[in-house]
């Protein structure tokens, strides 16, 4: 870009900035110089406009009425004289009242199943009808202008539906289906043999074996410390399995967890309650859920120290 072109653009930018500043200054001067009496007259005109909007409810609801356009034009003329916030509030209230009144009329027409056919035809003839110069009768309707007016509300262009393709196509003959051969009914009834999951049975037997081992340990060392019973310092998975086996013993009532005066948790064996005692409600089990992950296992090793463990390694 040449130097002269840059200077010319800078001069134009400065001139535009001065014009904008001048228009803002003129606007501020008009706001300061506006006569209080003129503002009072302007507010009274807005009150009359609001009253007209409230009284012309029926006139605004008619399709052949130009009252809405008249009120809008009057509102535009009054808004040109608005300079102060008080008059701006009156202008906004007038716009809101007119919009609310128009919306109420539209909703009322919808509730009344819309416009009647006679009113619709009358409105079309009034706006798009060519009238004679002598008696003013409608001789034709300007369909082109009506289509241009309504094209904004249509999603598809109107057209003529035609059928494509030759007319001498013969229908296809359906082939006769061959009869199906009858199936012989079975003479003997058979029942499938129930197959159990070997993995589930093996896991259940292993859990029962671990429970028996732990119960025998409790019988030999009663009471036993909880950490010495379940904690395996060389295997996190074995520790979790020991806790799992102990939970079943407590659930079945074959072991009880208590604590001494020092707060050390102790586990002792006990006789499981009978079925009658459980059903009668004399004995009730109390269970709880606690979190135990790898970090808890590492903390348990450092907290409880090294001592004899009853569990197998």
UniProtKB/TrEMBL annotation:
Keyword Metal-binding listed? The answer is: no
Ranges for the region named Disordered are 1-39, 173-204
State the GO CC annotations. nucleus; Smc5-Smc6 complex
| Domain Non-structural maintenance of chromosome element 4 C-terminal per the UniProt entry, residue ranges | 225-307
Q: Where in the cell is it found?
A: Nucleus
Q: Quote the biased-composition stretches of kind Basic and acidic residues, using this chain's numbering.
A: 1-17, 27-39, 185-204
Family the UniProt entry places it in: Belongs to the NSE4 family.
**Protein name per UniProt:** Non-structural maintenance of chromosomes element 4
Gene source species: Ceratodon purpureus (Fire moss)
